[in-house]
UniProtKB/TrEMBL annotation, chain A:
Membrane topology term: Multi-pass membrane protein
Pfam family, one: BPD_transp_1
Gene Ontology annotations of biological process type: transmembrane transport
UniProt gene name: artQ
Subcellular location: Cell membrane
Identification of the protein by name: Arginine ABC transporter permease protein ArtQ
TrEMBL record, chain B:
Subcellular location: Cell membrane
Gene Ontology biological process terms, A to Z: amino acid transport; transmembrane transport
Keywords carried by this UniProt record: Cell inner membrane, Cell membrane, Membrane, Transmembrane, Transmembrane helix, Transport
Record-level GO cellular component terms: plasma membrane
Name recorded for this polypeptide: Histidine transport system permease protein HisM
Keyword Nuclease applies: no
Alphabetical list of SUPFAM superfamilies matching this protein: MetI-like
Family recorded in the similarity comment: Belongs to the binding-protein-dependent transport system permease family.
Alphabetical list of Pfam families matching this protein: BPD_transp_1 (PF00528)
PROSITE patterns in the cross-refs: ABC_TM1
UniProt keyword annotation of Lyase present: no
Regions crossing the membrane: 44-64, 76-96, 126-147, 192-211, 231-255
Organism expressing this protein natively: Actibacterium lipolyticum
């Protein structure tokens, strides 16, 4: 980074630290904060979409679909989320390879599960063993995002299902009186109104999602926890920047990062709640009117 | 090997009783069910003890946060913010690294007349270190729940207590505390459920599983890695946890009934699910 960094062994004090904190591995460490933010930004809308689908399924008139929706929304209650995070990428990976195997190698004779092995033909491997490293990493990250979206989609479905039920019944009856079909009433009346009711639950969910991001480490993604362990571990003198076990300081850094992120979200969300309850016929809206008068 | 033999060998494997070696080849369903069930002992241990100790600290934290004295209120607010604002996963790592850095020989305590050496190595073991983290974590979450309940105690109840001439500890023990618990109980039930779920993180977050004594999810991932088939061990874990959740709900439901026994049937609060999950 700096010109004087070419010979780390000659450095002392502050300049050593400056060089240490800007070496290549630390740049990768700072980049992994970006990975966390990317995960948050992809997962949040994906989970919302899953949740919307789940909520619609849970209130569907078609019985099997309703069962599916109910099962999906209640599964997160009894089963630890970490079990899902370990299971979903693993299962999806095998599922995708199995489907590709069926499609691409129809005349493969041997069984796929041979004892403790999962064997598919080499063209069905996902990603192909010849693909470059970044494809493998992106694929792993994609599976992780999908696992997050499925778990948080179930939470979001719970919230949205409750919010849809909270919209006053009279609103839907009015829509019916105007001759709207079920579909029209749903999209034009129910969906626009439910967000105010869903907001407290969704903002709670956002905070939980932030706090779930270090679990990426369990899924084998090189995230901030991975780098904190990697960089913080004691380095002997064969490394350019030898130092004792500093993992504690790296994890303190992560703690501060997360505290800052949750605090910032809390501030933004409370501002958003304030804006959205403006003019609403709720207690928060009433309080605003009284304060203004 | 018959299933009965497997149960004898592995039912208490997670606490070090029975066969030392884990199964390595030809995994049977019976082995998976037994060993994962054996791991559940640790989940119950962590969850139950953290909940028990956390309950008392949470009451103290909630009272401190409601205190008008700045010097008492601020530490409680910071405690709650620190543990609720950061991921449990990071807290585990941080605690483990801290405990590892403590001197291995123990800390010399000088009590003036005698010097004692406090051993520290047990803190790096999951049974103590992770329990401390879970205890502080649940105390913070529960403290916030209790604080909210404390603030929503009907004013009439407190005025009635005053009218009876109750003060200080009597008023707290007879009126404020029971009402606070009654109001907080549904939310506290959810907190308990998710605390038990959070115990599955212990062996994935720095704390090593010593001599392969781990919790239910630890053994499940062991089997999934060995057999390369996630479709058997993880559903077993899921089944166990659904049972555990049902047990928690019914136990807390009984306590809820007792807390609400003086109220007319219709106004009793039922326990409802609110997702307040992953730490």
């Amino acid at each position: 980074m700096f010109s004087y960094c070419s010979d780390p062994s000659s450095l002392e004090g502050f300049s050593w630290l400056a060089c240490y904190l800007t070496n290549g591995k630390h740049m990768a460490f700072y980049g992994s904060f970006g990975v966390v933010m990317v995960l948050l930004l992809i997962t949040a809308p994906a989970a919302l979409a899953f949740g919307f689908g789940g909520a619609i399924a849970a209130r569907s008139a078609f019985l099997p679909l309703r069962w599916f929706g109910k099962a999906y929304t209640s599964m997160v209650r009894g089963i630890p989320d970490i079990a899902f995070f370990l299971f979903v990428p693993f299962a999806l990976d095998q599922g995708i390879e199995w489907l590709r195997h069926k499609a691409k190698c129809p005349d493969w004779e041997e069984p796929i599960r041979q004892g403790s092995d999962f064997v598919v033909c080499s063209v069905a491997k996902m990603p192909l063993s010849s693909s470059p490293q970044w494809v493998h990493e992106t694929y792993g990250f994609f599976l992780a995002v999908l696992a997050f979206a499925i778990v948080f989609g179930a939470f979001a479905a719970n919230v949205l299902f409750g919010a849809m039920k909270a919209v006053p019944r009279a609103q839907m009856e009015t829509a019916e009186a105007y001759g709207m079909t079920d579909r029209q009433a749903f999209w034009r009346i129910l969906v626009p109104q439910m967000w105010v009711y869903a907001l407290p639950g969704l903002s709670n969910l956002w905070m939980i999602l932030i706090k779930a991001t270090p679990l990426l480490f369990l899924l084998g993604v090189e995230d901030i926890v991975y780098w904190a362990r990697e960089l913080g571990g004691a380095k002997t003198s064969i490394f350019a920047y030898p130092h004792p076990d500093w993992r504690l300081y790296y994890f303190l850094g992560l703690l501060v990062f997360y505290l800052g992120l949750t605090k910032l979200s809390e501030m933004v969300l409370s501002r958003l709640t304030y804006r959205l309850s403006h003019g609403q016929a709720t207690m928060a809206g009433d309080a605003q009117r009284k304060a203004a008068a | 090997m018959s299933c009965l033999q497997t149960i004898q060998d592995y039912a208490l494997r997670s606490i070090g009783i029975g066969e030392r070696l884990l199964p390595r080849t030809d995994f049977t369903l019976c082995e998976q069910v037994t060993l994962i069930g054996s791991g559940l002992i640790w989940n119950v241990y962590f969850g139950a003890l953290a909940l028990l100790f956390g309950f008392f600290l949470a009451t103290a934290v909630a009272l401190a946060k409601a205190s008008p004295v700045w010097a008492i209120r601020k530490p409680a607010e910071w405690f709650i913010f620190l543990f609720r604002g950061s991921p449990l996963f990071i807290q585990f790592f941080l605690a483990y690294e801290t405990f590892v850095l403590l001197p291995k020989s123990g800390i010399e305590l000088n009590l003036g007349f005698i010097e004692i050496t406090a051993a520290t190595s047990w803190l790096t073991r999951a049974w103590a270190g992770a329990l401390i983290v879970l205890f502080l974590n649940t105390a913070a979450y529960t403290g916030e729940i209790f604080y909210g309940a404390l603030r929503s105690i009907p004013r009439g109840d407190i005025e009635a207590a005053d009218a009876y001439g109750m003060t200080g500890l009597t008023k707290f023990r007879r009126v404020i505390w029971p009402t606070m618990l009654r109001l907080a109980w549904p939310a506290y039930t959810n907190e308990a459920i998710f605390l038990f779920h959070a115990t599955t993180l212990v062996y994935f977050s720095g704390f090593p599983a010593w001599k392969q004594k781990g919790d239910a999810l630890y053994y499940a991932s062991y089997f999934a890695d060995k057999t390369f088939n996630p479709f058997i061990p993880y559903p077993i874990v899921a089944g166990y946890f659904i049972l555990l959740t049902l047990v928690i709900i019914s136990l807390f439901g009984l306590i809820n009934r007792r807390l609400n026994r003086h109220l007319p049937q219709a106004t009793r609060s039922r326990i409802r699910f609110k997702p307040q999950v992953i730490r």
